[in-house]
Amino acid sequence: MRSNVPKGISQVRRLSRVQPAERQALKQKRVEATEEVSTSYSYERKLKAPLKSAYLPVKRLFDVLSASGLMVVTGPIVLLFGVLVKLETPGSMFYSQERVGLMGKRFKVTKLRSMYTNAEKNSGAVWASKNDSRVTRVGKFIRKTRIDELPQLWSVIKGDMSMIGPRPERPELTEKFSEEVKGFEQRLRVLPGLSGYAQVHGGYDVTPEEKYKLDKYYMDNISLKEDLKIILETVRVVLTGDGAR
Length: 245
Known about the structure:
mainly alpha
């Protein structure tokens, strides 16, 4: 038999029969759903149009072929050091972190874990420093040789990153640097890279302003010739350990 009770009153009656513990659980679910909404940052509104170049399709093809080949070759190395990471300290051999990519798109980068688990629990998002106490012994080696970066080859294949481009920052740091350095967010107009002009010419010791200037030079001169030069410089950096921290 169809009820004549108005819908609104019926819903109120059903809610009134829910136990206090159940109501609290429902309230908590609503709060969690609200917290899952992605935070908006001011740098997203400052972005100009994506960088345009006839070279970009060629660059993408090169990315897929080179990243796929390197994943096959370096897979055993990643596995070996992943095991060493777990043997030295408790926790996962990998860790993922949110970064900002092309035109502000958020994505996850995965690296071999080089720091103690929950290293940023108290400090929050900060740049790593030289002789950082949060870095493990195995971590120091894989950071110096850039082995910790190798899992990001998968991000290159997926299209979140390129082999060469500005290194991706975390949203919080991108927001901070965008407020401090005029134009810093314009680095997002091109795919971020596994290596980049700022990485090989400034390393980790450059300031955000210097980093932006170096990356801007790359974006203004993006080409196959420039990418090949950076790749050769990257090999030199990996072999010498220059700029590691």
